[in-house]
Amino acid sequence: MKIAVIGSNMVDLTSYITRMPILGETLEAPDFTIGCGGKGANQAVAAAVCGIDVLMVTKVGSDIFADNTITNFKKYGIDTTYVQKVPGMSSGVAPIFVDESGQNSILIIKGANNKLLPADIDAAEEDLKKCKMIILQLEIPLETVYHAISFGKKNRIPVLLNPAPATKSLDINKVCECDFFVPNETELAILTGMPTETREDVEHAAASLIARGLKNVIVTLGGRGALWMTEKEKKYVEAYRVNAVDTSGAGDAFIGCFASTYVQDSDVLAAMQKASAFAALSVTRKGTQMSYPSSEELADFLKKNQPPQIL
Ligand code: RIB
């Protein structure tokens, strides 16, 4: 069984900081890592680790990062037939700042990701038609995201859209055909213009998206768990309690694991529980993809810990 990720890849340059420097200041940071990232690539890697074949549709630049990104996909057994190099462009790059509480701030320079166009989906059509799900994010042009959703609808392939990074330019009417819409609470606030501080706030904001025609809204809430809402359902999956050192890439970990699990057994809540474990393990280590547990580590964690409560 195979799923497709049509999306971004980046090189993550992560600085671990005590505080952000002010304008004109030079400040020493205690630590730094460099690793493969990008929301699309992270989700592809998470899905692959969780046991599904993955077809990656993305673009890298023609710089020193390109081959490393392709080699990294191959290391996880990801199909790179549609990973293309764009001559004369840089690969996507993401300077990330992680503070002492493990929270992150991320800048993205999209580079070659901006060149992933609707025609690239058409070029991959025959292979995409064999996939059981398509996963999308917003680090590629919006027209490509809309085209992928129409493609999924036309070919009866479920589509999961992670509307990240959130942008008010996203036309909700054009994404209503997606089967799963998975923002975090910050993205939900930006997309709806509504507060998302409390559980009630999150529920109202998620309900406003359901009212606009989205079918399944899953809001990832970090240490507060995740909410699944449909017209009929409203369920929370609690989070595992872990010591977070770096939360970057945790949302992607959740999404990749969720998609991989859901396509195999069609059980949304069970997939959310497993995704919650995978994401929890990822925040206990530094980095994005490099923080993801192996399938053995995940299995061991699931054996030793009770599944999170469903409320
Ligand atoms: O979601 C985390 C990811 O966002 C990072 O890997 C970074 O590359 C940005 O795309």
**Which ligands accompany this protein?**
alpha-D-ribofuranose
Beta-strand content bin: 15-25%
* Rounded mean pLDDT score: 97
Order of SSEs:
EEEHEHEEEHHEHEEHHEEEHHH
In words, what does this structure look like?
It is a single chain. By secondary structure, the protein is α/β, with parallel strands linked by helices. It has a single domain (2-8, 38-91, 110-304), classed as UDP-N-acetylmuramoyl-L-alanine:D-glutamate ligase (3-Layer(aba) Sandwich), CATH 3.40.1190.20. It is built from ten helices and 13 strands. It has helices spanning 39-49, 66-75, 118-123, 125-128, 142-154, 185-192, 199-211, 250-265, 268-282, 295-304, and strands spanning 2-6, 10-16, 31-37, 53-60, 79-85, 93-98, 104-106, 134-136, 159-161, 180-181, 216-220, 226-229, 234-237. The strands form two sheets. A nine-stranded mixed beta sheet has the order 5-4-1-8-9-10-11-12-13, sandwiched between helices. It has a four-stranded mixed beta sheet with strand order 3-2-6-7. Strand 6 (93-98) and strand 7 form a beta hairpin. Helix 6 packs across helix 7 (199-211). The protein is globular, with a radius of gyration of 18 Å. The two termini are 31 Å apart. The mean pLDDT is 97. The structure holds alpha-D-ribofuranose. Alpha-D-ribofuranose binds next to strand 2, helix 1 and helix 8. Alpha-D-ribofuranose is lined by residues 10, 12, 37-39, 42, 94, 106, 108, 139, 248-249, 251-252, 288.
